[in-house]
Write a structure and sequence with these properties.
By secondary structure, this protein is of the alpha/beta class. The protein has 2 domains: 197 residues, 3-Layer(aba) Sandwich (Rossmann fold), CATH 3.40.50; 237 residues, 3-Layer(aba) Sandwich (Rossmann fold), CATH 3.40.50. It has 19 helices and 14 strands. The chain has a 6-stranded parallel beta sheet, sandwiched between helices. Strand 5, helix 6 and strand 6 form a beta-alpha-beta unit. The longest helix is centred in the middle third of the chain and has 32 residues. The radius of gyration is 24 Å and the shape is elongated. It binds uridine-5'-diphosphate-xylopyranose. Uridine-5'-diphosphate-xylopyranose binds next to helix 10. Belongs to the UDP-glucose/GDP-mannose dehydrogenase family.
Protein backbone atom coordinates (compact mmCIF):
# COMPACT_ATOMS: atom_id res chain seq x y z
CA UNK A 1 0.00 0.00 0.00
CA UNK A 2 1.21 3.52 -0.67
CA UNK A 3 1.22 5.68 2.44
CA UNK A 4 2.02 9.39 2.82
CA UNK A 5 3.21 10.73 6.17
CA UNK A 6 2.83 14.49 6.43
CA UNK A 7 5.22 15.82 9.07
CA UNK A 8 8.61 14.17 9.55
CA UNK A 9 9.10 15.00 13.21
CA UNK A 10 9.33 12.49 15.99
CA UNK A 11 6.00 10.75 15.45
CA UNK A 12 5.92 10.97 11.66
CA UNK A 13 9.43 9.73 11.17
CA UNK A 14 9.17 6.78 13.54
CA UNK A 15 5.73 5.80 12.23
CA UNK A 16 6.78 6.24 8.58
CA UNK A 17 9.95 4.19 8.99
CA UNK A 18 8.11 1.40 10.84
CA UNK A 19 5.28 1.26 8.28
CA UNK A 20 7.91 1.02 5.52
CA UNK A 21 9.55 -1.78 7.47
CA UNK A 22 6.21 -3.64 7.38
CA UNK A 23 6.50 -3.58 3.58
CA UNK A 24 4.43 -0.50 2.74
CA UNK A 25 5.60 2.10 0.27
CA UNK A 26 6.01 5.23 2.42
CA UNK A 27 6.75 8.85 1.54
CA UNK A 28 7.60 11.16 4.45
CA UNK A 29 6.81 14.80 3.75
CA UNK A 30 8.04 17.90 5.55
CA UNK A 31 7.97 21.62 4.80
CA UNK A 32 11.50 22.11 6.11
CA UNK A 33 13.86 21.60 3.14
CA UNK A 34 16.91 21.37 5.42
CA UNK A 35 15.33 18.52 7.35
CA UNK A 36 14.38 16.65 4.17
CA UNK A 37 17.86 17.11 2.72
CA UNK A 38 19.44 15.75 5.88
CA UNK A 39 17.04 12.82 5.98
CA UNK A 40 17.87 12.03 2.37
CA UNK A 41 21.52 12.01 3.43
CA UNK A 42 20.71 9.66 6.31
CA UNK A 43 21.01 12.28 9.10
CA UNK A 44 18.23 12.04 11.73
CA UNK A 45 16.73 15.25 13.15
CA UNK A 46 16.25 13.59 16.56
CA UNK A 47 18.05 11.08 18.73
CA UNK A 48 16.08 7.84 18.90
CA UNK A 49 17.75 4.45 19.37
CA UNK A 50 17.63 2.33 16.20
CA UNK A 51 15.97 4.97 14.02
CA UNK A 52 18.91 5.82 11.74
CA UNK A 53 19.42 2.13 10.92
CA UNK A 54 15.70 1.55 10.32
CA UNK A 55 15.50 4.55 7.99
CA UNK A 56 18.67 3.59 6.10
CA UNK A 57 17.50 -0.02 5.60
CA UNK A 58 14.13 0.99 4.23
CA UNK A 59 15.47 3.75 2.00
CA UNK A 60 17.91 1.23 0.54
CA UNK A 61 15.07 -1.25 -0.02
CA UNK A 62 13.19 1.45 -1.95
CA UNK A 63 10.24 1.52 0.44
CA UNK A 64 10.91 4.87 2.13
CA UNK A 65 11.54 8.28 0.61
CA UNK A 66 11.43 11.93 1.62
CA UNK A 67 10.08 15.03 -0.09
CA UNK A 68 9.09 18.61 0.62
CA UNK A 69 6.27 18.44 -1.90
CA UNK A 70 2.94 17.42 -0.39
CA UNK A 71 1.30 17.25 -3.84
CA UNK A 72 3.92 14.76 -5.01
CA UNK A 73 4.02 12.82 -1.76
CA UNK A 74 0.28 12.17 -1.51
CA UNK A 75 -0.11 11.25 -5.18
CA UNK A 76 -1.50 7.71 -5.30
CA UNK A 77 -1.48 7.29 -1.51
CA UNK A 78 -4.42 5.37 -0.08
CA UNK A 79 -3.65 6.50 3.46
CA UNK A 80 -2.40 10.01 4.26
CA UNK A 81 -1.26 10.45 7.85
CA UNK A 82 -1.17 13.87 9.46
CA UNK A 83 1.68 13.82 11.98
CA UNK A 84 2.46 17.50 12.43
CA UNK A 85 2.94 19.25 15.76
CA UNK A 86 0.10 20.42 18.03
CA UNK A 87 1.98 22.61 20.51
CA UNK A 88 0.31 24.40 23.41
CA UNK A 89 -1.06 27.66 22.07
CA UNK A 90 0.74 30.56 23.67
CA UNK A 91 -1.43 32.25 26.22
CA UNK A 92 -4.30 29.83 26.71
CA UNK A 93 -2.91 26.26 26.77
CA UNK A 94 -5.32 25.03 24.06
CA UNK A 95 -3.69 22.77 21.45
CA UNK A 96 -2.65 24.84 18.44
CA UNK A 97 -4.30 23.16 15.45
CA UNK A 98 -3.14 25.56 12.76
CA UNK A 99 -0.62 23.06 11.35
CA UNK A 100 -3.19 20.25 11.22
CA UNK A 101 -5.74 22.47 9.50
CA UNK A 102 -3.17 23.76 7.01
CA UNK A 103 -2.26 20.20 6.01
CA UNK A 104 -5.95 19.30 5.59
CA UNK A 105 -6.42 22.31 3.29
CA UNK A 106 -3.37 21.42 1.22
CA UNK A 107 -4.44 17.79 0.94
CA UNK A 108 -7.86 19.02 -0.25
CA UNK A 109 -6.18 21.08 -2.97
CA UNK A 110 -3.99 18.31 -4.34
CA UNK A 111 -5.79 15.02 -3.76
CA UNK A 112 -6.74 13.25 -7.00
CA UNK A 113 -8.28 9.97 -5.85
CA UNK A 114 -10.14 8.42 -2.88
CA UNK A 115 -8.00 8.25 0.27
CA UNK A 116 -8.19 7.93 4.01
CA UNK A 117 -6.87 10.92 5.95
CA UNK A 118 -5.52 9.75 9.29
CA UNK A 119 -4.86 12.09 12.20
CA UNK A 120 -1.89 10.78 14.14
CA UNK A 121 -1.06 14.09 15.79
CA UNK A 122 -2.54 14.40 19.27
CA UNK A 123 -5.63 16.50 18.67
CA UNK A 124 -8.57 17.58 20.83
CA UNK A 125 -11.93 15.92 20.49
CA UNK A 126 -13.75 17.17 17.42
CA UNK A 127 -10.64 17.88 15.33
CA UNK A 128 -11.53 15.00 12.99
CA UNK A 129 -14.88 16.68 12.33
CA UNK A 130 -13.11 19.93 11.47
CA UNK A 131 -10.65 18.15 9.14
CA UNK A 132 -13.67 16.55 7.45
CA UNK A 133 -15.30 19.98 7.00
CA UNK A 134 -12.10 21.41 5.50
CA UNK A 135 -11.91 18.53 3.02
CA UNK A 136 -15.62 18.90 2.19
CA UNK A 137 -14.98 22.59 1.41
CA UNK A 138 -12.41 21.48 -1.17
CA UNK A 139 -15.33 20.00 -3.15
CA UNK A 140 -13.63 16.72 -4.06
CA UNK A 141 -15.49 14.58 -6.57
CA UNK A 142 -14.62 11.28 -4.84
CA UNK A 143 -14.95 9.90 -1.31
CA UNK A 144 -12.46 10.58 1.46
CA UNK A 145 -12.64 9.24 4.99
CA UNK A 146 -11.20 10.97 8.05
CA UNK A 147 -9.89 8.63 10.72
CA UNK A 148 -8.24 9.11 14.13
CA UNK A 149 -5.31 6.85 14.98
CA UNK A 150 -3.45 8.15 18.04
CA UNK A 151 0.12 7.15 18.81
CA UNK A 152 1.28 5.86 22.17
CA UNK A 153 5.02 5.93 21.50
CA UNK A 154 7.50 6.54 24.28
CA UNK A 155 10.60 8.47 23.34
CA UNK A 156 13.64 6.26 23.59
CA UNK A 157 11.54 3.13 23.01
CA UNK A 158 9.44 4.35 20.09
CA UNK A 159 10.34 1.71 17.51
CA UNK A 160 9.61 -1.18 19.87
CA UNK A 161 6.38 0.53 20.93
CA UNK A 162 5.28 0.92 17.31
CA UNK A 163 6.10 -2.65 16.35
CA UNK A 164 4.79 -4.33 19.50
CA UNK A 165 1.95 -2.09 20.67
CA UNK A 166 -0.34 -2.92 23.59
CA UNK A 167 -3.18 -1.86 21.28
CA UNK A 168 -3.95 0.06 18.12
CA UNK A 169 -6.84 2.49 18.39
CA UNK A 170 -8.73 3.46 15.26
CA UNK A 171 -11.58 5.94 15.36
CA UNK A 172 -13.48 5.67 12.09
CA UNK A 173 -16.95 6.64 11.01
CA UNK A 174 -17.26 4.51 7.85
CA UNK A 175 -16.26 1.17 6.28
CA UNK A 176 -13.83 2.71 3.82
CA UNK A 177 -11.81 4.16 6.70
CA UNK A 178 -11.91 0.93 8.69
CA UNK A 179 -10.89 -1.22 5.71
CA UNK A 180 -7.91 0.90 4.71
CA UNK A 181 -6.68 1.08 8.32
CA UNK A 182 -6.98 -2.67 8.60
CA UNK A 183 -4.68 -2.96 5.58
CA UNK A 184 -2.21 -0.45 7.05
CA UNK A 185 -1.88 -2.46 10.27
CA UNK A 186 -2.32 -5.97 8.85
CA UNK A 187 1.33 -6.90 9.58
CA UNK A 188 0.70 -6.06 13.22
CA UNK A 189 -2.39 -8.16 13.80
CA UNK A 190 -0.38 -11.09 12.64
CA UNK A 191 1.47 -10.36 15.90
CA UNK A 192 -1.93 -10.36 17.66
CA UNK A 193 -1.87 -6.69 18.53
CA UNK A 194 -5.44 -5.86 19.56
CA UNK A 195 -7.07 -3.49 17.14
CA UNK A 196 -9.74 -1.38 18.79
CA UNK A 197 -12.28 0.27 16.52
CA UNK A 198 -14.17 3.16 18.08
CA UNK A 199 -15.93 6.30 16.98
CA UNK A 200 -13.60 9.11 15.94
CA UNK A 201 -14.37 11.20 19.03
CA UNK A 202 -13.76 8.31 21.41
CA UNK A 203 -10.44 7.63 19.75
CA UNK A 204 -9.38 11.27 20.09
CA UNK A 205 -10.31 11.15 23.75
CA UNK A 206 -8.51 7.84 24.41
CA UNK A 207 -5.15 9.44 23.71
CA UNK A 208 -5.69 12.28 26.18
CA UNK A 209 -7.31 10.05 28.80
CA UNK A 210 -4.37 7.61 28.60
CA UNK A 211 -1.76 10.33 29.06
CA UNK A 212 -3.73 12.04 31.84
CA UNK A 213 -4.13 8.73 33.65
CA UNK A 214 -0.41 7.94 33.41
CA UNK A 215 0.45 11.45 34.60
CA UNK A 216 -1.93 10.89 37.53
CA UNK A 217 -0.29 7.60 38.41
CA UNK A 218 3.17 9.21 38.52
CA UNK A 219 1.92 12.20 40.50
CA UNK A 220 0.12 9.95 42.96
CA UNK A 221 3.26 7.96 43.75
CA UNK A 222 5.29 11.17 43.96
CA UNK A 223 3.00 12.47 46.69
CA UNK A 224 3.08 9.11 48.45
CA UNK A 225 6.89 9.43 48.33
CA UNK A 226 6.67 12.80 50.08
CA UNK A 227 4.49 11.20 52.75
CA UNK A 228 6.96 8.31 53.09
CA UNK A 229 9.69 10.84 53.84
CA UNK A 230 7.60 12.31 56.64
CA UNK A 231 6.43 9.06 58.23
CA UNK A 232 9.52 6.95 57.59
CA UNK A 233 8.23 4.64 54.85
CA UNK A 234 9.94 3.43 51.68
CA UNK A 235 8.13 4.42 48.49
CA UNK A 236 9.71 1.62 46.48
CA UNK A 237 8.21 -0.95 48.83
CA UNK A 238 4.87 0.83 48.79
CA UNK A 239 4.91 0.96 44.95
CA UNK A 240 5.73 -2.73 44.75
CA UNK A 241 3.12 -3.58 47.34
CA UNK A 242 0.34 -1.77 45.52
CA UNK A 243 1.60 -2.54 41.99
CA UNK A 244 1.32 -6.30 42.45
CA UNK A 245 -2.43 -5.80 42.61
CA UNK A 246 -3.35 -6.38 38.94
CA UNK A 247 -6.00 -3.70 39.13
CA UNK A 248 -3.27 -1.16 39.83
CA UNK A 249 -0.29 -2.57 37.91
CA UNK A 250 3.36 -2.00 38.71
CA UNK A 251 4.34 0.32 35.84
CA UNK A 252 4.57 4.11 36.11
CA UNK A 253 4.94 3.98 39.86
CA UNK A 254 8.54 5.20 40.03
CA UNK A 255 8.70 8.25 42.22
CA UNK A 256 10.94 10.99 40.85
CA UNK A 257 11.34 14.72 40.22
CA UNK A 258 8.02 15.01 38.35
CA UNK A 259 7.09 14.15 34.78
CA UNK A 260 8.26 16.23 31.83
CA UNK A 261 8.50 15.72 28.10
CA UNK A 262 6.60 16.69 25.02
CA UNK A 263 3.38 14.90 25.90
CA UNK A 264 2.22 14.75 29.50
CA UNK A 265 2.50 18.46 30.39
CA UNK A 266 1.01 19.65 27.08
CA UNK A 267 -1.69 17.00 26.80
CA UNK A 268 -2.97 17.30 30.37
CA UNK A 269 -3.27 21.06 29.80
CA UNK A 270 -5.11 20.64 26.49
CA UNK A 271 -7.48 18.08 28.03
CA UNK A 272 -8.26 20.49 30.86
CA UNK A 273 -9.10 23.17 28.31
CA UNK A 274 -11.49 20.83 26.49
CA UNK A 275 -13.08 19.86 29.82
CA UNK A 276 -13.53 23.54 30.65
CA UNK A 277 -15.08 24.29 27.26
CA UNK A 278 -17.63 21.51 27.69
CA UNK A 279 -18.30 22.35 31.32
CA UNK A 280 -17.19 18.91 32.52
CA UNK A 281 -14.31 19.79 34.84
CA UNK A 282 -11.58 17.20 35.37
CA UNK A 283 -10.62 18.16 38.90
CA UNK A 284 -8.24 15.26 39.43
CA UNK A 285 -6.25 16.15 36.31
CA UNK A 286 -6.25 19.81 37.37
CA UNK A 287 -4.63 18.82 40.65
CA UNK A 288 -2.12 16.57 38.88
CA UNK A 289 -0.93 19.35 36.57
CA UNK A 290 -0.58 21.78 39.48
CA UNK A 291 1.16 19.32 41.80
CA UNK A 292 3.62 18.23 39.12
CA UNK A 293 4.45 21.81 38.21
CA UNK A 294 5.32 22.80 41.75
CA UNK A 295 7.24 19.56 42.31
CA UNK A 296 10.04 20.56 39.95
CA UNK A 297 11.00 23.62 41.95
CA UNK A 298 10.50 21.64 45.16
CA UNK A 299 13.26 19.33 43.90
CA UNK A 300 15.58 22.33 43.67
CA UNK A 301 14.74 23.12 47.30
CA UNK A 302 15.46 19.51 48.23
CA UNK A 303 18.98 19.94 46.85
CA UNK A 304 19.36 23.17 48.83
CA UNK A 305 18.27 21.30 51.99
CA UNK A 306 20.93 18.66 51.32
CA UNK A 307 23.50 21.46 51.18
CA UNK A 308 22.43 22.48 54.69
CA UNK A 309 19.72 25.06 53.88
CA UNK A 310 19.58 28.39 52.04
CA UNK A 311 22.27 30.14 54.10
CA UNK A 312 24.79 27.36 53.70
CA UNK A 313 23.97 26.78 50.02
CA UNK A 314 24.70 30.31 48.81
CA UNK A 315 27.89 30.41 46.72
CA UNK A 316 28.23 26.62 46.61
CA UNK A 317 28.36 24.53 43.45
CA UNK A 318 25.98 21.74 42.50
CA UNK A 319 26.67 19.26 39.69
CA UNK A 320 23.58 18.09 37.81
CA UNK A 321 23.92 14.67 36.17
CA UNK A 322 21.32 14.21 33.45
CA UNK A 323 19.20 17.05 32.05
CA UNK A 324 16.77 15.51 29.56
CA UNK A 325 13.24 14.73 30.84
CA UNK A 326 14.16 11.04 30.77
CA UNK A 327 17.06 8.89 29.47
CA UNK A 328 17.68 7.85 25.84
CA UNK A 329 16.44 11.07 24.32
CA UNK A 330 17.88 14.52 23.68
CA UNK A 331 14.49 16.08 24.45
CA UNK A 332 14.54 18.88 27.01
CA UNK A 333 10.89 19.90 26.76
CA UNK A 334 9.50 20.57 30.25
CA UNK A 335 12.45 18.70 31.77
CA UNK A 336 12.54 19.01 35.59
CA UNK A 337 16.25 19.89 35.32
CA UNK A 338 15.33 23.35 33.98
CA UNK A 339 13.27 24.32 37.05
CA UNK A 340 15.76 22.66 39.40
CA UNK A 341 18.68 24.65 37.98
CA UNK A 342 16.62 27.84 38.10
CA UNK A 343 15.68 27.30 41.75
CA UNK A 344 19.32 26.68 42.64
CA UNK A 345 20.50 29.75 40.76
CA UNK A 346 17.79 31.88 42.39
CA UNK A 347 19.27 30.81 45.74
CA UNK A 348 22.77 31.87 44.69
CA UNK A 349 24.00 28.34 43.95
CA UNK A 350 26.34 27.76 41.00
CA UNK A 351 25.35 24.93 38.68
CA UNK A 352 27.49 22.72 36.46
CA UNK A 353 25.85 20.06 34.33
CA UNK A 354 26.44 17.13 32.05
CA UNK A 355 24.03 15.09 29.92
CA UNK A 356 24.99 12.36 27.43
CA UNK A 357 22.67 13.65 24.63
CA UNK A 358 20.80 16.72 25.80
CA UNK A 359 23.48 19.39 26.16
CA UNK A 360 22.81 21.10 22.86
CA UNK A 361 19.08 21.47 23.54
CA UNK A 362 19.69 22.27 27.21
CA UNK A 363 22.21 25.08 26.82
CA UNK A 364 19.81 27.79 25.58
CA UNK A 365 17.16 26.76 28.15
CA UNK A 366 19.52 26.93 31.12
CA UNK A 367 21.37 30.24 30.96
CA UNK A 368 24.17 30.60 33.48
CA UNK A 369 24.63 26.84 33.88
CA UNK A 370 28.15 25.65 33.09
CA UNK A 371 27.85 22.77 30.64
CA UNK A 372 30.79 20.37 30.70
CA UNK A 373 31.83 17.37 28.64
CA UNK A 374 31.66 14.52 31.13
CA UNK A 375 30.23 13.41 34.47
CA UNK A 376 33.74 13.46 35.97
CA UNK A 377 34.25 17.05 34.91
CA UNK A 378 30.83 18.05 36.27
CA UNK A 379 31.41 16.63 39.75
CA UNK A 380 34.96 17.90 40.10
CA UNK A 381 35.04 20.37 42.98
CA UNK A 382 31.26 20.21 43.50
CA UNK A 383 29.69 20.68 46.93
CA UNK A 384 26.87 18.32 45.98
CA UNK A 385 25.94 16.05 43.08
CA UNK A 386 22.30 15.75 42.01
CA UNK A 387 21.32 12.84 39.78
CA UNK A 388 18.40 14.21 37.80
CA UNK A 389 17.96 11.80 34.86
CA UNK A 390 18.64 8.08 35.16
CA UNK A 391 20.88 7.55 32.11
CA UNK A 392 22.56 4.12 32.22
CA UNK A 393 25.91 5.90 32.41
CA UNK A 394 24.90 7.30 35.85
CA UNK A 395 23.55 4.04 37.24
CA UNK A 396 26.94 2.60 38.03
CA UNK A 397 29.11 5.60 38.83
CA UNK A 398 32.42 4.73 40.45
CA UNK A 399 31.50 6.33 43.78
CA UNK A 400 35.05 6.14 45.14
CA UNK A 401 36.20 8.15 42.15
CA UNK A 402 33.32 10.61 42.51
CA UNK A 403 34.22 11.03 46.16
CA UNK A 404 37.81 11.78 45.24
CA UNK A 405 36.71 14.44 42.73
CA UNK A 406 34.02 16.32 44.67
CA UNK A 407 34.65 18.89 47.35
CA UNK A 408 32.10 17.36 49.72
CA UNK A 409 30.47 13.96 49.21
CA UNK A 410 26.79 14.85 49.04
CA UNK A 411 24.58 12.90 46.62
CA UNK A 412 20.94 13.75 45.91
CA UNK A 413 19.48 10.91 43.89
CA UNK A 414 16.20 12.16 42.41
CA UNK A 415 15.57 8.85 40.59
CA UNK A 416 16.26 6.36 43.39
CA UNK A 417 18.97 4.68 41.34
CA UNK A 418 21.29 3.87 44.26
CA UNK A 419 20.90 1.85 47.46
CA UNK A 420 21.04 4.17 50.44
CA UNK A 421 23.13 1.83 52.62
CA UNK A 422 25.74 1.29 49.87
CA UNK A 423 26.17 4.98 49.11
CA UNK A 424 26.36 5.89 52.80
CA UNK A 425 28.92 3.14 53.38
CA UNK A 426 31.12 4.97 50.85
CA UNK A 427 30.98 8.06 53.03
CA UNK A 428 28.35 10.10 51.19
CA UNK A 429 25.56 12.12 52.70
CA UNK A 430 22.75 10.63 50.61
CA UNK A 431 19.20 11.83 49.95
CA UNK A 432 16.74 10.15 47.61
CA UNK A 433 12.99 10.26 46.99
CA UNK A 434 10.64 8.76 49.55
CA UNK A 435 13.15 6.44 51.17
CA UNK A 436 14.57 6.46 54.67
C1 LIG B 1 4.52 9.47 27.00
C2 LIG B 1 3.61 8.23 26.96
O1 LIG B 1 4.20 7.16 27.70
C3 LIG B 1 3.35 7.82 25.54
O2 LIG B 1 2.44 6.73 25.52
C4 LIG B 1 2.76 9.01 24.79
O3 LIG B 1 2.54 8.68 23.44
C5 LIG B 1 3.69 10.21 24.89
O4 LIG B 1 3.94 10.52 26.26
P1 LIG B 1 7.13 9.97 26.78
O5 LIG B 1 6.78 11.41 26.97
O6 LIG B 1 8.08 9.60 25.72
O7 LIG B 1 5.80 9.12 26.50
O8 LIG B 1 7.75 9.47 28.15
P2 LIG B 1 7.42 8.45 29.32
O9 LIG B 1 8.38 7.34 29.28
O10 LIG B 1 5.99 8.10 29.38
O11 LIG B 1 7.82 9.37 30.58
C6 LIG B 1 7.17 10.62 30.83
C7 LIG B 1 7.71 11.29 32.06
O12 LIG B 1 7.28 10.63 33.23
C8 LIG B 1 9.23 11.34 32.16
O13 LIG B 1 9.61 12.61 32.65
C9 LIG B 1 9.57 10.23 33.14
O14 LIG B 1 10.77 10.46 33.82
C10 LIG B 1 8.37 10.32 34.06
N1 LIG B 1 8.07 9.06 34.77
C11 LIG B 1 7.64 7.97 34.08
C12 LIG B 1 8.21 9.00 36.16
O15 LIG B 1 8.60 9.97 36.81
N2 LIG B 1 7.86 7.83 36.79
C13 LIG B 1 7.42 6.74 36.13
O16 LIG B 1 7.13 5.73 36.78
C14 LIG B 1 7.31 6.81 34.72
Amino acid sequence: MKIAMVGSGYVGLVSGACLADFGHDVVCIDKDPGKIERLQAGVMPIYEPGLAELVAGNVKAGRLSFTTSLAEGIDGAQAIFIAVGTPSRRGDGHADLSFVHAVAREVGEHLKAPAVIVTKSTVPVGTGDEVERILADAGLAFPVSVVSNPEFLREGAAIGDFKRPDRIVIGAEDDFGRQVMQEVYRPLFLNQAPLLFTSRRSSELIKYAANAFLATKITFINEIADLCEKVGGNVQDVARGIGLDNRIGSKFLHAGPGYGGSCFPKDTLALLKTAEDYDAPLRIVEAVAKVNDSRKRAMGRKVIEALGGAEAARGKTVALLGLTFKPNTDDMRDAPAIAIAQTLQDAGVKVTAYDPEGMEMAAPLMPGVTMVGSAAEAVTGADAVALVTEWDAFRALDLDRVKALVKTPVLIDLRNVYRPDEVRAKGFAYTSIGRP
